[in-house]
Amino acid sequence: MSKKRKSEATRLDEVCRSMNTTFCSAANSLSQLYSHAMNHQGLSFQAGERHAMEKLFQWILRQRQGLKVKTADIVA
Questions:
Q1: Is the dihedral of CA 49, 53, 54, 56 positive or negative?
Q2: pLDDT digits (tens, 9 = 90+) for 9-21
Q3: Alpha helices in the chain (DSSP H)
Q4: Which of 66, 45, 48 shows the shortest CA–CA distance to 57?
Q5: Cα separations (Å) of 56 from 30, 36, 41, 51, 71?
Q6: How far apart are the first and last CA of the chain?
Q7: Which domain of life is it from (predicted)?
Q8: Distance between CA 56 and CA 75 in Å, rounded?
Q9: Over the stretch 19-53, which tens digit does the pLDDT of each residue have?
Q10: What was the pLDDT predicted at 66?
Q11: From residue 46, how far is each of 15, 41, 42 by CA, in Å?
Q12: Biggest distance spanned by C-alpha atoms of the chain
């Protein structure tokens, strides 16, 4: 009868190890997804900033009707 108990305990240990491995894999995947999302958020912010600056520059050119734009014109 002790062999049967030992066999059950071994199976439970294997199940626990398998669950732990699965959990660690899922946690690592989630961490990678979060890192990727944060990197993409930064890139998106920079793209939006660049787009806004281009739109501002186009607006200034329209206001000045193609005349050369100086830094003081932008700041003022």
A1: positive
A2: 788 889 999 999 9
A3: 2-64, 71-75
A4: 66
A5: 39, 30, 22, 9, 13
A6: 91
A7: Eukaryota
A8: 12
A9: 999 999 999 999 999 999 999 999 999 999 999 99
A10: 66
A11: 47, 9, 6
A12: 96
